Amino acid sequence: MDSRKVLGDDKVALVIGKMTKGCNLCFPGLKAVIFITGLCGDSCYYCPVSNDRFGKDVVYVNEEVVRSVKEIITEVERQGANGASITGGDPLVRFERTLRVIKCLKSTFGNSFHIHLYTSGRYATPDALVSLWKNGLDEIRFHPVDNRYKKAISYAVKLTGMDVGAEIPIAKGLEGWAKEVIKDVERLGGTFVNLNEMEFVESNANSLLSRGYDEDVKRPFTVKGSLKAAIKVLEWASKNASIDVHFCPASFKDSIQTRNRFRRLAVNDRRWYEKPTPYGTLKWAEVLDMGRLKISIDDIYKYKNHRIKIYESHPTRSRKPIVYEEEL
């Protein structure tokens, strides 16, 4: 097998071959993240899902709690997304809810609206996979908690027209596991494997520390050695695999994916007095001695003899300020 090049850089992406459509839409912030449930049936020691979501049957779109399919559609529209990733937990634990959301997204935004989904494969029966595909799921990513994922991949490849692959975390000591997953996916007819830089966050820190993992001070909120492990696997895959392999750095999710999603939200959902910033936030001002009159920060000069407070927030529905300063 001819060796293939590893392309990209370690802060944005490293890839052999090409990235899936689902990943490509993440870069410009065009994917809405639909957290369909915190239930999953597994307790992976490296799970980065926050404590307010893990094990709880809650639904979020991006950072917003939603309570109906109608609210999901509203949030997707507010973002101006061209696709959605359905995640959890394991979305198939709430299969009917997941199916209803997929159907509604496709009927509202059309067949070109791209949807991918993450699942362990534990609940991925042939009937479930066919139903997901027929109702509009475009891409499925299996997380191999146990060997059941192999049958799930096989069923998805043989019975559906979805793009099929696997997605796993990568860290020092997991190189062998990653190589086996790549070999399994290729053998079973899948087309890609995504390697996620293992995150080091509040919800999994104690579990990781107890297993000898430390945070990388040079790459905040990641496990030390994850990048080196990913490069080893990519170099091996470049010579030993023909499917696409993609390494997604944790920094990409924070500094690029989330920021670009916020930028779109800020532009699409701004109120007349709010000004989008390059960082995906919104700024505005209030004239405190005029009944907290809201004004654009560009108009502050008109109120130079008044007490003014400047606010900045993420483009959430609540507009809860993250920064404010007072001008006299």
Provide an overview of this structure.
This protein has 328 residues and is of the alpha/beta class. The protein has 2 domains: 7-263, Alpha-Beta Barrel (TIM Barrel); 271-327, no CATH class. It is 33% helix and 23% strand. It has 9 helices and 16 strands. An 11-stranded mixed beta sheet has the order 1-2-11-10-9-8-7-6-3-4-5, with helices on both faces. Strands 12, 13, 14, 15 and 16 form a 5-stranded antiparallel beta sheet that branches. The radius of gyration is 22 Å and the shape is globular. It starts with 6 loop residues before the first strand and ends with a strand.
Give keywords.
328 residues, eleven-stranded mixed sheet, alpha/beta, five-stranded antiparallel sheet, TIM Barrel, single chain
Question: Layout of SSEs?
Answer:
Elements: E1 7-9, E2 13-16, H1 21-26, E3 31-37, E4 60-61, E5 64-65, H2 69-79, E6 83-88, H3 95-109, E7 114-119, H4 126-134, E8 139-142, H5 148-159, E9 163-170, H6 175-188, E10 192-197, H7 205-210, H8 226-240, E11 244-248, H9 250-269, E12 275-276, E13 282-287, E14 293-295, E15 308-313, E16 321-327
Parallel strand pairs: 3-6, 6-7, 7-8, 8-9, 9-10, 10-11
Antiparallel strand pairs: 1-2, 2-11, 3-4, 4-5, 12-13, 13-14, 13-15, 15-16
Helix pairs in contact: 6-8
